[in-house]
């Protein structure tokens, strides 16, 4: 059970890795933490039902090295969210609890949570109050700029204002609206236009709030540009598909250029973790699938990915699969 946490006063949202269902599990987060000491990591969205009526330890466990770490919850029942917040804070020591008010999938809508909650700001405010009452850790909201035809700047201002009046100080805003029907979750990340200016406006009008911008950010220069308007940036797909992007974060955004591992070293640093996981019954491909992009843009990257994809899922696959894949890329040929 994790024991050390960052205090609320120390928690920084300057750079965050977005919660991504089926992607940001504990294995992926452990690998990401090797590349950045300072990035704030988020879990996948976990529903209140999974925690309260399933195996809470299975869904909430993590490695102590993952701190600082935030849990993202999905739900709309204040009492259930409050109980999950209590469990996450007291029993698992998460550094932050985040409420998902941005996911547009049909499954999420059928449970009356996610992006559809943007149309019910008073309920979101009630959920926030119930959650914050159960923890001294920050409770935060991740939302969109709007949903369906409710996508005006005035609508966003009213939503933020209502929830902020309940005491919420930190908002992570995906700078796109969500269509609740007609678009898949993937299309909702790509088709609705980005409105960074609306997120900037929220920060300008509410300087006391901690505003983090999310959506379409793939370069460090863009991160720096957004930080001239907002308190933090959240990066999703780029952090996962091109994980060595995270190796820039500490120096560029936190002034810490110490101990940045090379790509090869990042892979090797996973060896003890993988050996322990295999002994616990974890399958190799459940870990290595998160490492496939570490050599993106480097000669031999395709061979590395292919070798792992063709071998890591086989019965009895062990650490030698990863070692053999790594041998396909010459360390001397890489200028880090």
From TrEMBL:
According to its UniProt record, the EC number is: 1.3.1.91
Which Gene3D superfamilies does UniProt cross-reference here?
Answer: 1.20.120.1460, Aldolase class I
Q: To which species is this protein native? A: BD1-7 clade bacterium
- Swiss-Prot/TrEMBL cofactor(s): FMN
- Positions of FMN binding: 72, 142, 174, 214-216, 236-237
> Which keywords has UniProt assigned to this entry?
Flavoprotein, FMN, NADP, Nucleotide-binding, Oxidoreductase, RNA-binding, tRNA processing, tRNA-binding
Catalytic center at which residues? 103 (proton donor)
The top EC class is oxidoreductase
Instruction: Using the record's annotation, list all stretches that form the DUS-like FMN-binding domain.
Output: 17-326
Q: Which reaction does it catalyse?
A: 5,6-dihydrouridine(20a) in tRNA + NAD(+) = uridine(20a) in tRNA + NADH + H(+); 5,6-dihydrouridine(20) in tRNA + NADP(+) = uridine(20) in tRNA + NADPH + H(+); 5,6-dihydrouridine(20a) in tRNA + NADP(+) = uridine(20a) in tRNA + NADPH + H(+); 5,6-dihydrouridine(20) in tRNA + NAD(+) = uridine(20) in tRNA + NADH + H(+)
GO terms of molecular function? flavin adenine dinucleotide binding; FMN binding; tRNA binding; tRNA-dihydrouridine20 synthase activity
Highest taxon above the source species = Bacteria
Instruction: Please state which protein family the record places this protein in.
Output: Belongs to the dus family. Belongs to the Dus family. DusA subfamily.
Q: PANTHER family per the record?
A: FMN-LINKED OXIDOREDUCTASES SUPERFAMILY PROTEIN (PTHR42907:SF1)
Its name, as the record gives it, is tRNA-dihydrouridine(20/20a) synthase
Q: Where is this site: Interacts with tRNA?
A: 100, 186, 189, 305
Q: What does this protein do?
A: Catalyzes the synthesis of 5,6-dihydrouridine (D), a modified base found in the D-loop of most tRNAs, via the reduction of the C5-C6 double bond in target uridines. Specifically modifies U20 and U20a in tRNAs.
Write down the HAMAP family for this protein, in alphabetical order: DusA_subfam (MF_02041)
């Amino acid at each position: 059970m994790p024991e050390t946490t960052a205090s609320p006063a120390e928690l920084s949202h300057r750079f965050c890795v977005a919660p991504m269902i089926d992607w940001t599990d504990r294995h992926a987060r452990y690998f990401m933490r090797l590349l950045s000491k300072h990035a704030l990591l988020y879990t996948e969205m976990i529903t209140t039902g999974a925690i309260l009526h399933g195996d809470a330890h299975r869904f909430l466990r993590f490695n102590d090295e993952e701190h600082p770490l935030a849990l993202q919850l999905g739900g709309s029942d204040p009492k259930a969210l409050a109980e999950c917040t209590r469990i996450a804070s007291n029993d698992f020591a998460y550094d932050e609890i985040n409420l998902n008010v941005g996911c547009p999938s049909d499954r999420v809508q059928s449970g009356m949570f996610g992006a559809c909650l943007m149309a019910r700001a008073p309920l979101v405010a009630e959920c926030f109050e119930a959650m914050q009452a159960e923890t001294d850790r920050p409770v935060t909201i991740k939302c969109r700029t709007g949903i369906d035809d409710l996508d005006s700047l005035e609508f966003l201002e009213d939503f933020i204002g209502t929830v902020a009046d309940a005491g919420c100080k930190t908002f992570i805003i995906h700078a796109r609206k969500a269509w609740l029907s007609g678009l898949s979750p993937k299309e909702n990340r790509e088709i609705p236009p980005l409105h960074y200016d609306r997120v900037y406006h929220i920060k300008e009008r509410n300087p006391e709030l901690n505003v983090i911008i999310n959506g379409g950010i793939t370069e460090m220069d863009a991160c720096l540009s957004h930080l001239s308007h907002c308190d933090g940036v959240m990066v999703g797909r780029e952090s996962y598909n091109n994980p060595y992007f995270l190796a820039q974060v500490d120096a560029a955004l936190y002034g810490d250029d110490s101990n940045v591992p090379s790509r090869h070293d990042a892979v090797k640093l996973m060896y003890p973790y993988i050996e322990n996981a295999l002994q616990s019954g974890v399958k190799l491909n459940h870990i290595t699938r998160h490492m496939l992009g570490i050599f993106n843009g480097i000669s031999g990257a395709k061979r590395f990915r292919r070798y792992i994809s063709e071998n890591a899922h086989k019965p009895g696959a062990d650490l030698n699969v990863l070692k053999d894949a790594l041998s396909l890329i010459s360390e001397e040929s890489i200028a880090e």
